[in-house]
Amino acid sequence: MERMMIISSDGHVAPKMRSYREYIDPDMRAEFDDFCDDHDKNGSGHTAEGRALKMFIDEDVADEWDRTQGDTGRIDGMWDSDRRLEVLEGEGVCAEVLIPESAGLPFRLHQAAVLREKRIQGPSAAQIQAGDRAYNRWLADFVSTTPERYAGMAHIQFEPVAAAVEEIKRAKENGLKGVMIPTFDAERPLFIAEFDPIWSALEDTGLPLCSHAAMSLTSNFGFNYAGLPHPGCAGPISRATSVAFCQWILDHMVWGGVFERHPRLRVVFTEQSSGWIPGKLTTMDYSYTGSYLRQDIKSVIKHSPSEYFRRQCWIGSSLLAASEVEARHLIGVDKMMVGTDYPHFEGSWNGGNIDYLQATFGPADVPVEEARLMLGETIVEVYDFDVAKLRPIAERIGPLPERILTPPVEDKFPRGDVHKPLGGFSL
Known about the structure:
This protein has helices spanning about 30-40, 50-55, 60-70, 80-90, 110-115, 125-145, 160-175, 195-205, 235-255, 260, 275-290, 305-310, 320-325, 330, 345-350, 355-360, 370-385, 385-395, 400-405; strands at about 5-15, 95-100, 150-155, 180, 210, 265-270, 315, 335-340. With about 425 residues, it is an alpha/beta fold.
């Protein structure tokens, strides 16, 4: 029997901060040099560093992370393609969707540094846009080393609109495979007519949109951490806020008429669980058909929310829970795309390997055909991977079906996402 072709829907990449310099617009390099000096002192290159993790997890656990992951070079795949492929192949993963490391973008300091230094001043709009352009240039070079194994997601601000449209076209020309949904100003929601040229450009290029928790938000609302009884409480509160704002993108796309106006637009909801989908769609459909909602809304929202979802949405199910695999038919077997979240903490310790997949798939009596869809075949279609090039890699490194689909004899994951309740999202 063919080995499993595993493609991760969720991996993060960014170079070391100073490596961006050659990709920064020349007229912004002096500003970038000043930022790098500040970053060296106060910043954190990415959320896979122990000093950033200490905001959310126990110090001894963060120190162990540095010893077993950082000091061993395992997380160097964040910026080193050869090292990345070495790690992924060891876990049976033959290809990956590459999502920006938000704390590793130019002109951005990690949240932990902002809190530590009590800094609230963020980068200027010009710095953000220059940083995004630099990231996309770097990412195009990164994926070009092994283009058949990577689907890179461009990071783009939606304003100015004309500049966003040009950056989308440039992303396509440079071999990137999708575009991240950014954070929106609450006064400029994503469904306003001014953004329609962006949705049209995405339809024309065929690039899917990827939303990701803590990166793609319907509001730029900032959480005030003052007054918490314990620093560790910031994690669950900020996570709950960011996940809610990310999932509300579906509401904005449906009720804001974006899906109706742009039927070829494709959207992926990544790293925000997949167990929320059944209840969300049931509630939205009831609003459409059974509530006291104005019936003339159907002149502009011509299909039920679940119809739009089936037509235009998919889920980057990272990190997957056993409860989600059990509920796969409610969620949509052909909609779920498993992700490993490499090289982040929760993915590297609580997932991203064959034992983890066995812990989630094994107890659920999943037919091999369904497992193949969730582990690779669906993502091939959404992100335009070449199966002919990936199949030989899968036959070399992929697990046999029984290795994943046989129930485990012991619980190797007492903490983390394996036992997460359906619809839940935890640190």
